[in-house]
Write a structure and sequence with these properties.
Helices cover 49% and strands 4% of the residues. By secondary structure, it is mainly alpha-helical.
Length: 97
């Protein structure tokens, strides 16, 4: 079953684009705290997994972009995602010095 947002029920509700409000550890989805939690998770991924870290560093000084297709309804906007990766890349570089 294709679980993209453009499919019918129940597949569309399983998509990462489904509008599903939730709270985890008292942090509401789509809040500033939610974005902080996402950045912490991405930081853990790119600092703890050597393959991910090497891939991120291999982008050198490239401006990172991300196309999310036709559906722009997501809890993590493309510009935030790319900004987080760029900040994490810079933090990793600073730690290596």
């Amino acid at each position: 079953m294709d679980i993209r947002s453009g499919c019918g029920y129940p597949a569309m509700q399983l998509s990462n684009f489904a509008r599903s409000y939730f709270v985890i550890d008292d942090i509401p989805c789509h809040s500033d705290e939610h974005l902080t939690l996402i950045k912490r998770a991405l930081t853990a991924k790119f600092t703890q997994h050597d393959g991910s870290k090497c891939a991120l560093l291999a982008t050198n000084n490239a401006v990172l972009t991300h196309s999310i297709g036709k559906n722009k309804k997501t809890s993590l906007k493309a510009n935030d995602f790319c900004r987080f990766l760029t900040e994490i890349r810079e933090d990793i570089r600073k730690e290596k010095k």
